[in-house]
């Protein structure tokens, strides 16, 4: 039976990497009925709607999406459609595995990095509740709730249980935001107490950033509120070779939307050199979610083979191949 999947290409490099990922998924032999829907800065400007209803309708039908990045204007304009989608579908858990790939030259290539980031995805400073109290004085509300904090903590501990991960590090700034981050931390401790076989520790976010650079191999599962999760994800991506290779999943009770950590990369859009690995690895997560474990394994192994050979890599990871050449090599490696 074919799986129905909503395909959102997005902006900038989105269409390039989404098409590459689609080709790679189709080459695994798994049957997918792709339902392409348009969602981009241009569509939002034209329709005046930040999240058109047809996107929600499609995801309600399919329950699974593969999504390219959508650009958000900086310091003005419409609110982030990525955040709106996560909130609207209650995609409360953002899961980002960060792993070294063979053949990628990085400052940390002698170190085995294998961590999974769990970022709360619906609240915190992403509440979008900002206002100008008087001219030149602005407040921005950070919202932390017990419900959302317990939910992400339980999700992370359940995952650690299921896959045999040993340690969870909660990351916070509760020394300063005693109430908001204090609540997040209390919820993490409460859930940790129900899982005594998993080692649990806490780090203040500034210290955690330093430790991640100094000793990345000591991290296993990271558990963070929304904003720290966003920043630490890019930091962690930098440890393993950059945003071109780190995948992600936005998980809710009913829906799952898979997307790379990276944005629309306007600096390289249209040049044919974007690295589609992050989207392909997001597709691997999607195939696992669809219980297509053999296909997921085939795609993962093919990507690793191409990296190990170092022959068809894109410029961001030290090669000179374009998006299509890399994709062709991954598909050839599956034959
Ligand atoms: P970015 O992630 O788009 O790019 C950061 C840097 O990484 C750039 O130099 C870019 O060329 C490089 N890069 C990213 N992905 C790459 C890939 N696949 N291959 C090779 N190089 C890659 O971050 P930014 O420039 O800060 O943001 C650009 C836009 O993307 C903004 O409008 C932002 O709001 C949006 N954004 C969207 C999402 C999302 O849709 N989930 C996530 C992050 C940023």
Furnish the topology, listing elements before pairings.
Blueprint: E1 3-8, H1 14-27, E2 32-37, H2 41-47, H3 53-62, E3 64-67, H4 81-88, E4 93-99, E5 114-120, E6 130-134, E7 137-140, H5 146-163, E8 167-172, H6 180-193, E9 199-204, H7 205-214, E10 221-224, H8 226-240, E11 249-251, E12 256-259, H9 277-289, H10 293-309, H11 323-334
Parallel strand pairs: 1-2, 1-3, 3-12, 5-10, 8-9, 8-10
Antiparallel strand pairs: 4-5, 4-11, 6-7, 11-12
Name its key features.
alpha/beta, binds nicotinamide-adenine-dinucleotide, ten-stranded mixed sheet, 11 helices, two-stranded antiparallel sheet
Structure explained in plain terms:
This protein has 335 residues and is α/β, with parallel strands linked by helices. It has helices at residues 14-27, 41-47, 53-62, 81-88, 146-163, 180-193, 205-214, 226-240, 277-289, 293-309, 323-334; strands at 3-8, 32-37, 64-67, 93-99, 114-120, 130-134, 137-140, 167-172, 199-204, 221-224, 249-251, 256-259. A ten-stranded mixed sheet has the order 2-1-3-12-11-4-5-10-8-9, with helices on both faces. A two-stranded antiparallel sheet has the order 6-7. The two termini are 22 Å apart. The mean pLDDT is 96. Bound molecules: nicotinamide-adenine-dinucleotide (NAD). Nicotinamide-adenine-dinucleotide (NAD) is lined by residues 13, 17, 69-72, 82, 243-244, 259, 262-268, 274-275, 278, 316.
